[in-house]
Amino acid sequence: MELLWALQNLTPTAIVDIILVATVFFMASLFIRGTQAIALLRGMVLVIVSLLAVSSLFNLQAVRWLLENTILVLGIAIPVIFQPELRRALEQLGRGSLLLSRQTPESRRAQIIEDVCQAAERLSERRHGALIVLQRNSSLEEYVRTGILLDSQVSWQLLLTIFWPKTELHDGAAIIGANGRLISAASVLPLTASRNLPDPKLGTRHRAALGISEVSDAIVVVVSEETGRIAITDGGRMIPRLDSKRLRTILTALYGVERRRSASPVALLSDRARQAVESLRDWRKRA
After folding, report:
1. Least buried of 27, 101, 149, 256, by fewest C-beta within 10 Å?
2. Residue-range definition of the domain harbouring residue 224
């Protein structure tokens, strides 16, 4: 009955009002999508909805009173909690780039994989340490700002120059943005907090590679300065002891999988699982 009443009283003004409110929520979802704020927001919504359901089911007056007062406080706390995201959204809106797609074209993504593999191979031969971050969906803006902004085209020659031991930019991470450009160098990444490391002797560079892959969906290629070995991290996991061929295969599966939108989710999942099994098998042979 309420639905019929709402449909009967639906006016052109009400339709415009609904569209505007939906647009506001859609725009809000755009600038927090892929950031750590989305996880925080999901947690807050889950807690509030759970408490509302429990209070309604068992008629808990004290819990209901707590929720009513908490919601008022959240109206003030949310702008403070999400201040970095709000500031970034307003900056993007001012530049007119909030609705622009950040996805890298297919041909450019394949070229980036090739450049990273060639650079990693040469850096491994020279035993020059390197940390190369490939951004996917998660925002890395807070880490980009800790380094030197470049905004240049990716090339293996440029990566070799950045990680030359006598340059000022070699100590830190080079971040390749979602737009396919090298956006920063010498960026500082968070170290992993996990105690279950694949090797307790891992240095700061490898711990940073694991750390950024734990807090985002970025892929990280790391070259050891001591041994020259190449490793890759994704989702808090590390695949060590790679050669350029295996690195290219894994990067194609992980970094290139987003561009194959025509493939079914089952096919993409099975392909990724197959690549992971092959990598693990190759690692065991080398161990």
Report:
1. 101
2. 106-286
